[in-house]
Structure formats: C-alpha cells, structure tokens
Amino acid sequence: MDFVTTGDGSKTLYNAEIGECYHSKHGAVQESRHVFIQTGLDYYVQQTGAKAVAILEVGFGTGLNFVQTADFIRERSVAVNYVGIEGFPLPLSVIAETGYGETVDAGVWSAYLAAYEEGLKQEVQIHERLQLHINHTLLMDFRSEKLFDVVYFDAFAAIHQPEMWSDAALGHIAQFVKPGGVFVTYAITGNLKRSMKSLGFSIEKAPGAPGKREMLRATKL
Ligand SMILES: C[S@@+](CC[C@H](N)C(=O)[O-])C[C@H]1O[C@@H](n2cnc3c(N)ncnc32)[C@H](O)[C@@H]1O
Fold it and tell me: How close is the Cα of 3 to the center of ligand 1, in Å?
C-alpha cells in the first residue's frame, strides 16, 4: 500500500485492491476530527454529560480516529473504552510511518505505538482513563457482550464495499449500540438513512467534513 498526501497535508493509505484511500483526499486528519471527534464523541459528551464513554469503531485501520480520541480526552475528565473492529490489521511499521504522531500530543502517539500489537490480542490499559482493544475480525463475525455509546463507522465507501453498508451489516452493528447511543459516519445517502431509521435510530444530517456537504449522525431511540 502506498501513502498519498491529502488536502490538509496529512497522509493516507491507498488500498489498490479496493481502489480507495483510507481517508478523505481533502484531509485525513481534519475528516477524523470533524466527523468522529466533534460530531460524534464531543457531541455525545456534551449532550449527556457522560464521564465514561464506550466507543466502537468499524474499520480501525491506521488508528487515526483512536489517536484523535486519545488526544481529545487528554485534558478532559472523560474516560474512554475503545474497541476497534479490523479485518485486515496493518503492520505496526506502516502505522509508524503515517506521520499522525505530529497531529497529537507526543505521549499519546508513543503510548499508541507501544499498545498496538498487544491491543490486537487483548484489551490494553493505556492509562487510567483509556483502554484499547482491536478485534482482529470481520465485521459480521464481531461479537460483544458490551454495548457502546458511540459508534465510529469508518468503512470504505459503499461504491467500493457495498456489503459494509448493507442492512445486514448495519443491523449487526446496531445491536451493540445503547439506547441514546450515537452512530456517526462521513457519508449520508437515502439508503443509509432508510436503513438506520428501520433499525430504530433517529437521523440527523450534520455538516460534512471539508469536501463533503453532509454526513450522518444517528441516535438510537
Ligand atoms: C476507510 S478504512 C478505515 C480507516 C481507519 N478508520 C483509519 O483511520 O485508518 C476501512 C477499514 O475497514 C477495514 N475492513 C474492510 N472490510 C472489513 C470487514 N469486512 N470487516 C472488518 N474490517 C474491514 C479495512 O481493512 C480498513 O482498515
């Protein structure tokens, strides 16, 4: 896989098999912060006043959304239990070359690199308010007894990987969301809105990350 520089100067990976990059070409880091941190986590914390948030990410990839999350909670009194789902984990050597360490606190980045490989095997306590577990599994094989407050849905686009956006896939994830829990993703389509409504979510169109007009935020009723 090759690195590509995106609109905000941060890098992303190009997956030739899928024919798509891991992040927005308009800006990988700004997309992560806008879609997942501000419209997902920050919104949820502000709405609920939660001091402990369980996050589920579909498509953990490089861990960009994880490190932005870890950086976000650094100076806030919020604890995060972070669970990723990743079918095809990247080698640590590739993650180390993303340059994402330059976009977060140095301690956040070094703690992430140190935890990554162990995190693929079991939950790692990164510090007293942060745990990470990356499930090396395909989405449809993911199981959990735990329910989640916030879902970061970061699959490749439907045009390249339609099965990730099917009713079956979205329904599989929906069962792990708490009532009042929030599901965010960078895209919004008629099909996605219909599926999420039928799965018991209320739908909002939120402003999209630069380069995209709108994105979806759905709240479980
Ligand atoms: C758009 S990229 C995610 C980018 C990632 N959030 C990041 O910040 O680097 C989609 C991810 O989904 C993973 N993936 C693709 N098909 C999957 C499946 N069926 N189950 C689990 N993960 C899958 C890919 O390997 C890739 O890492």
Answer: 16
H or E element that contains 107? helix 106-119
**71: Cβ below 6 Å to ligand 1?**
no
Q: What angle do CA 8, 10, 14 make, to 5 degrees?
A: 115
Task: Please give the structure tokens belonging to residue 205.
Answer: 């169109």
For residues 175-203, give the mean pLDDT: 98
Q: Which two tokens stand for residue 207?
A: 């402003």
Alpha carbon 27 to its chain centroid, in Å, reads: 15
> Cα(186)–Cα(179) distance, rounded to whole angstroms?
22
Type of residue numbered 42: D
Q: Which domains does the chain have, with CATH numbers?
A: 26-220 (3.40.50.150)
| Mutation choice for ligand 1 from 88, 176, 186, CB with most ligand atoms inside 8 A | 88
The C-alpha atoms of residue 6 and residue 90 are separated, in whole angstroms, by 20
Predicted TM-score (pTM) of the model is 0.98
Nearest partner of 109 among 126, 85, 125, judged by Cα: 126
Question: Would the pLDDT of 213 be above 90?
Answer: yes
